[in-house]
Write a structure and sequence with these properties.
3 domains; about 325 residues; OB fold (Dihydrolipoamide Acetyltransferase, E2P); alpha/beta; binds zinc ion; binds magnesium ion; Rossmann fold; binds guanosine-5'-triphosphate
Length: about 325
């Protein structure tokens, strides 16, 4: 497994604005599931540690205007107890970062897939459904925008030859750690588990690739629903609905997330797009034109790197199609 050769981009995040502080007598807890107006939270301190508590948001919090969800799975919140095992969320800690996807049909709201991840594991299958590396390139941008370290898992490897796996995912080995796994045979699962220990990881990717199955293999103490891949469309059936965070060991959290199909890319700043392609970074600033878009300009260091084979052509084409704006303003499935 190759280690990433490039540093990730630094970008400051817009942390949710918080008006108050945790009130006296409140307790820190992690949001593990969101159901519209109520949340499942897990206290992490001695007070009721290990319990799952149903919490609602304090009215004052609800009235805050925010660009993204006020409370999301992965948030650290402070709660006060109510009778009947319920609680009120009094305070939400600022997020250090979040895996976010812009909502499908609106330009101004963001959907938080997971707040405060330490890393994201983008999962694809080598077959059933077929991998879609352009989609992987777009998912990677979501993580790079937020400075979230990326891992890639290729699941269902027992369904394909090593040559085929290499053909699709070989180029990513130079960019990010790539884990070849099979939730069914258990191949690679132990090693992948090791990569998750002590961290909070969002497991994300298209529907039907085996995200929930993989987590069941990694952590058999929870049972997550899994679903068939449709024979007719070759697509998953969106079995997992809503992100859910599991504590699988001390300080080890994994989020099973719903299959991502529509990815609105309009939230991406086209001027920063080049820096989200990790292998372009050594060449940025080396072009003749300072405002080079790396699409048509002469003396472009990125284009030269593609010609010389230092940047993979398929990745470059992913960049060009996004930079040209063709896909920046539409959904992709
Ligand atoms: N052959 C094979 N099938 C697998 C493997 N892992 C999962 N599957 C199958 O793939 C299908 C989809 O698995 P899920 O775990 O539900 O996929 P998911 O990514 O969680 O899908 P959503 O929740 O819809 O996003 C199920 O029929 C699984 O049994 C694997 O390693 N090999
Ligand atoms: Mg699932
Ligand atoms: Zn250029």
């Amino acid at each position: 497994m190759a280690k990433p050769r490039y540093r990730t981009a630094t970008q400051t995040n817009e942390a949710p604005s918080v008006v108050n502080e945790p009130p006296a007598g409140s307790h820190r807890a992690k949001v593990v599931r969101a159901h519209g107006l109520w949340y499942e939270v897990k206290p992490v301190e001695d007070h009721r540690a290990g319990e799952t508590i149903i919490a609602t948001m304090k009215g004052q919090l609800k009235r805050q205007k925010r660009k993204s969800d006020i409370v999301a799975v992965g948030d650290w919140v402070w709660i006060t107890d109510l009778p009947d095992n319920e609680a009120v969320i009094e305070y939400v800690e600022p997020r250090n970062r979040a895996l976010i996807r812009t909502a499908r049909h609106t330009r101004d709201t963001e959907q938080v897939i997971l707040a405060n991840p330490d890393q994201v594991l983008f999962t694809f299958s080598i077959a059933d459904p077929e991998p879609h590396t352009r989609m992987l390139d777009r998912f990677i941008i979501l993580a790079e925008m937020q400075d979230i370290p990326v891992h890639i898992a290729v699941n269902k490897i027992e369904l394909a030859t090593p040559e085929r796996i290499e053909e699709f995912f070989g180029i990513y080995r130079d960019l990010y750690p790539v884990h070849l796994v099979s939730a069914h045979t258990g191949q690679g699962v132990g090693e992948l588990r090791g990569e998750l220990m002590g961290k909070t990881t969002a497991v994300a990717g298209p529907s039907g690739v085996g995200k929930s199955s993989l987590l069941n293999a990694i952590d058999p103490s929870h049972r997550r629903d899994t679903g068939e891949v449709s024979g007719a469309t070759g697509k998953g059936k969106h079995t997992t609905i809503g992100s859910r965070l599991y504590e699988i060991d001390d300080d080890t959290w994994v989020a099973d997330t719903p299959g991502m199909r529509a990815l609105a890319m309009h939230a991406i700043d086209p001027l920063k797009l080049d820096s989200y392609f990790v292998e372009f970074r050594p060449f940025l600033g080396e072009c003749f034109y300072q405002d080079c878009t790396h699409v048509h300009e002469p003396a472009c260091a990125v284009i030269e790197a593609v010609e010389l084979g230092a940047i993979n052509r398929a990745r470059y084409e992913s960049y060009v199609s996004l930079r040209a704006g063709e896909e920046l303003s539409q959904e992709n499935s």
